[in-house]
């Protein structure tokens, strides 16, 4: 969703698919909560809800930071040594945030909290249609029963670091901004500035703590010593409250703004959960979280990925490669996982790990099929043309390559699963599909698709009565003043119409059928090379 900058009060918000809503920010937050959030009085929430952690984030061996830094300085090429200090700072910093995250997720599930990681002030300000600033906080925790707002600044240094006290002052300014925008009295809530030093043994090690606590009588400093106790024990004592409208309002606004306010985008109030759905489809709901799959423990951030090009070409197991290959990558290489997800930022080694795996499978005499899902973009060659193509040529005839057909999208699932049809609508919004032809073989699943359209406020396609239509009939229908989709029962149009629709309709085509049925008819459409063909295949 995007606030389009109207006057104070009611604003015009742009939704996915070009729809608009005339709302105040409060109404927009309520709409978002009603559509996508659980009962906040019964369930705690997090942003992000889940992080995919595949073991390809930290490209370092299991060594203490001082030994790791020493080995890196001795191993990398001279021209890359200036990167080591910055890289090690990222490693230790992200590990510290990870430790704090794990500590906070230990809050009892009976308490109502909202946990936000790396929340940026600009999210909230864009949501309100206000001028925005780039100010990010490591962690924001809203504690419902205690009516306390915690802004947590995490530092990796054993003696602290620079700027943490000033950052927590900025946190209070943002806290006051949120309460003022939501109409909540500051007397009803308490701001708690929290400085966290997971690598410090105790407060005495950290510079600036006495002065910080003197200026912030309700402030909190957390070190290893404090992390042995629960957060609630560390906080200033006070009464416990029932979850009230003030907590619900704060969480609605923060969650709506966090999901919907992305820089430079037309923002949709239809957040999906691709991590959970991808994990379910590819690796199963009960897959172990070690190395592959989904974990509520996010692991350290992938911003610590090593960018040392001089290490990437070294053989696995060599002294140099220990700084690139890690034990989780080795698990993927040497264990026989039937399905897994590999995720990592640019330079994290996804391609190297993938082709090392392919090579090992080929050497074992296994049959390998490589399917690339990277379509070429205008003036930018796809990555497999630059890197993967050369690697694949090394395998010769031992590997077959399947490349995607431009304009063809296959979606699969269970006939009665609403996620299939909501995902179809998401794809239509993503591809800006407005006018289209829908062909279905059976009407049993059709209502689920129509319900998904209605939930997004999209128009229902025009259903043509079942008869036997010719090509001329289809041409006439397309010339009618119909701005939305046109629906046909497959049994109500002649076979020759399929070929004509694929080659001449000039608008997107959606074909819905049961698994392994009517395949010849689908091929007739695809042979016409339509600009966009979304094929939805469901199983009973």
Structure description:
The protein is flat. Strands 4-6-7-8-9-10 form a six-stranded mixed beta sheet, with helices on both faces. A six-stranded parallel beta sheet has the order 14-19-18-15-17-16, with helices on both faces. It has 18 helices and 19 strands. The chain has 540 residues and is of the alpha/beta class. The chain has helices spanning 25-36, 65-75, 82-104, 121-128, 164-182, 209-215, 231-234, 245-260, 274-282, 309-312, 327-334, 350-363, 383-395, 418-430, 446-455, 471-479, 495-504, 519-526, and strands spanning 2-3, 11-14, 20-23, 45-47, 51-52, 113-120, 136-143, 148-154, 190-196, 220-222, 294-295, 368-371, 399-402, 408-414, 437-440, 462-463, 486-489, 509-514, 533-539. Among the domains are: 2-36 and 106-260, no CATH class; 408-539, Rossmann fold, CATH 3.40.50. Strand 7 and strand 8 (148-154) form a beta hairpin.
List keywords for this structure.
alpha/beta, 18 helices, 19 strands, flat
DSSP strand tally: 19
Share of β-strand residues: 15-25%
Mean pLDDT: 77
How many whole angstroms does the radius of gyration measure? 27 Å
Low-confidence stretches: 1-8, 51-60, 262-275, 287-308, 375-384
Alpha carbon gap, first and last residue: 36 Å
- Adjacency order of strands in the biggest sheet: 4-6-7-8-9-10
Q: Helix count?
A: 18
Q: What's the multimeric state?
A: single chain
Structural class by helix and strand composition: alpha/beta
Shape: flat
Helicity range of the residues? 25-40%
The largest sheet is: 6 strands, mixed
Brief write-up:
The chain is of the alpha/beta class and 540 residues long. The protein has helices spanning 25-36, 65-75, 82-104, 121-128, 164-182, 209-215, 231-234, 245-260, 274-282, 309-312, 327-334, 350-363, 383-395, 418-430, 446-455, 471-479, 495-504, 519-526, and strands at 2-3, 11-14, 20-23, 45-47, 51-52, 113-120, 136-143, 148-154, 190-196, 220-222, 294-295, 368-371, 399-402, 408-414, 437-440, 462-463, 486-489, 509-514, 533-539. Helices cover 37% and strands 16% of the residues.
């Amino acid at each position: 969703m995007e606030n389009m900058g109207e006057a104070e009060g009611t604003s015009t918000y742009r939704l996915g698919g070009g729809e608009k809503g005339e709302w105040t920010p409060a109404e927009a937050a309520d709409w978002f909560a009603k559509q996508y959030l659980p009962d906040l009085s019964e369930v705690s929430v997090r942003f992000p809800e889940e992080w995919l952690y595949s073991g390809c984030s930290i490209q370092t061996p299991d060594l203490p930071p001082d030994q790791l830094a020493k080995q890196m300085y001795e191993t990398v090429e001279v021209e890359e040594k200036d990167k080591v200090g910055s890289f090690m700072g990222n490693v230790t910093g992200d590990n510290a945030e990870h430790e704090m995250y794990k500590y906070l997720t230990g809050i009892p599930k009976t308490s109502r909290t909202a946990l936000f990681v790396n929340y940026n002030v600009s999210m909230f300000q864009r949501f309100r249609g206000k001028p925005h600033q780039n100010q990010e906080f490591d962690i924001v925790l809203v504690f419902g029963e205690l009516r306390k707002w915690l802004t947590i600044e995490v530092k990796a240094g054993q003696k602290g670091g620079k700027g943490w006290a000033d950052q927590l002052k900025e946190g209070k300014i943002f806290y006051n901004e949120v309460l003022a925008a939501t109409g909540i009295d500051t007397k009803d809530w308490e701001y708690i500035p929290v400085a966290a030093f997971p690598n410090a043994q105790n407060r005495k090690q950290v510079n600036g703590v006495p002065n910080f606590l003197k200026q912030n009588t309700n402030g909190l400093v957390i070190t290893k010593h404090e992390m042995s106790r629960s957060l609630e024990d560390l906080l200033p004592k006070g009464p416990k409250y029932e979850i009230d409208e003030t907590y619900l309002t704060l969480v609605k606004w923060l969650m709506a703004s966090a999901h919907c306010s992305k820089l430079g985008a037309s923002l949709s109030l239809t957040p999906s959960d691709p991590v959970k759905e991808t994990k379910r489809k590819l690796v199963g709901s009960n897959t172990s979280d070690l190395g592959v799959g989904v974990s509520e423990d996010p692991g350290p951030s992938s911003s610590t990925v090593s960018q040392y090009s001089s290490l990437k070409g070294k053989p696995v197991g060599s002294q140099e490669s220990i700084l690139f290959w890690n034990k989780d990558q080795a698990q993927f290489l040497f264990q026989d996982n039937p399905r897994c997800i590999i995720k990592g930022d640019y330079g994290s080694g996804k391609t190297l790990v993938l082709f090392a795996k392919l090579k090992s499978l080929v050497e074992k005499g296994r049959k390998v099929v490589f399917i690339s899902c990277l379509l070429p973009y205008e003036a930018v060659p796809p990555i497999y043309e630059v890197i993967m193509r050369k690697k694949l040529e090394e395998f010769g005839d031992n590997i077959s390559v399947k490349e995607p057909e431009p304009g063809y999208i296959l979606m699969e699932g269970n006939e009665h699963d609403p996620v299939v049809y909501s995902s179809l609508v998401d794809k239509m919004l993503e591809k800006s599909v407005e006018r289209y032809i829908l062909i279905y073989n059976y009407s049993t699943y059709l209502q689920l698709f129509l319900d998904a359209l209605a939930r997004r406020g999209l128009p229902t396609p025009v259903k043509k009565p079942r008869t036997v239509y010719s090509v001329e009939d289809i041409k006439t229908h397309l010339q009618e003043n119909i701005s939305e989709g046109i629906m046909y029962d497959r049994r109500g149009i002649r076979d020759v119409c399929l070929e004509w629709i694929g080659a001449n309709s000039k608008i997107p085509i959606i074909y819905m059928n049961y698994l392994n049925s009517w395949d010849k008819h689908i091929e007739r459409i695809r042979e016409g090379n339509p600009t966009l063909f979304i094929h939805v295949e469901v199983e009973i």
